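Bench notes, bay 3.
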Amino acid sequence: MTRPTVATAVAGPRRRPSLDRVWPPVAFGILALVLWELVVTFSGVPAFLLPAPSAIAAQVVAAFPTILATAAVTGGNALVGLVVGFVMGVGLALLAARSRIVSELATPLVSAAAAVPIVALAPVFTTMFGSTTEVPRRLVVSVVVVVPVFVSTARGLAQVTPVHHDLMTALAATPGQFARFVRLPGAVPYIMTGLRLAAPASVIAAIVAEYFGGLQNGLGSRITSAAANTAYARAWAFVVASIILGLLFYLAGLLAERIVTRTPTRREP
């Protein structure tokens, strides 16, 4: 039989998520949809301004196979760009932490990349790599992802306590060993925070990049095409799919952060 520890006695039993935390946002969302439907129906709002939720839901059902296929394309581009940008951001931050010259060169470049809008990058990459490939969109996503990952990782790598620094110096550790055993483990929470921030941003970048030519097989392309053909409810159906895709990427990043940074609990006898 196990005895309760002092921490357990003070904190009390672990609470599970209850309906009290779930039903308020659900109720608010349902109420907002009902009000939206009533306002559009009885006030005669034009469809090009705001379609009714019922019309959007009907288009989601009618075009579900197309929505699923286009979401898979956009999600694939976002995932590839996220992985490439994440690896580049972490690797560049490691090099910057190891070399002052690299740090002085990389930091301004990353800051400049953060200031460049997607609407400027997408046409340039499309012209460089052609409009019949997904490479331009994935490069746009990679550039967008590098910024938060690099900034967060660089901040984490700089959080080295003097005790650890003196210890590794006394042990005559090489720069690679110092990064492997001190800098990188301590920066893991910061790295995962950068991934969580970059995950939904990758979806936004992939969708926006699809607005500027190229293959017409993604959510962004379908939104512009439906709006140009006055199929506004269908365009909003693709917008709903974009929102769901962004939420899935955010939840995946949040789950990865919690799994990696979770501290194992010790069992007291």
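Next record in the batch:
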Amino acid sequence: MKIKIILALLFLNSCLLQRVKEEEHIELITNPQGEGIPLVAEFTKGPAYNHPCLAIWLEDLEGNYLETLLVTKYVATGIFAHGETQPGKWNVEPGSVRRPATLPYWAHKRGIRASDGLYIPSPETPVPDAITAATPKGNFSLDTRSTVFPPKKFRILLEINQAWDSNRYWTNTSYSNDPDYFGSLQPSLVYATTFDTENGDDPVFLNPIGHGHPSGKDGKLFTDLTTLTTAKEIIHSVSVRLKLKP
């Protein structure tokens, strides 16, 4: 009897673990009405993953911005889980927060200014819902489609940043007079790859190419990544492939 009970418990635990494993992977769909190139991105989180903000977008080979495929809702709307009542003071309720250091490379590439002069979206100038989503809690796939028709070869980029992600190089005293820096600490990390539509559905992997400005004051790409530590462990891998018709 004891053996049967043990076997039954092991079976139940196995089923629960399998269910948790299945629930960890989330499927996102953005821009379903797009008539351009259909793409599937596979995102596998790393050990430091903890609700980061991110954006995925397209550029031509000369680095000209084409369009955004996904941006997390906090950044897209300018409404975060905890509103800022004054610099360094937070509300328990959701509210508007201006965080230019979150995804500065994407924001400046996109080139749309809000009324306060910042390039990040605001509640008055949000990103369209069709390309936004809440930050997935775990691994996810993105099923998306462009609205533009880029050339056969183009670039796919991703920028990711995790709030309050400090290390011994990026601390609260690094930029003591810059309040925009405090919410980020380690700066955003930018990944990229070149995509060729003639490669069929063979996946290509994005690799880190630099980081954004520590406080988001400009859209420059800084290629020295030696001081970034856990920021490099937010993502384990990101691949993109062409979605062929079934």
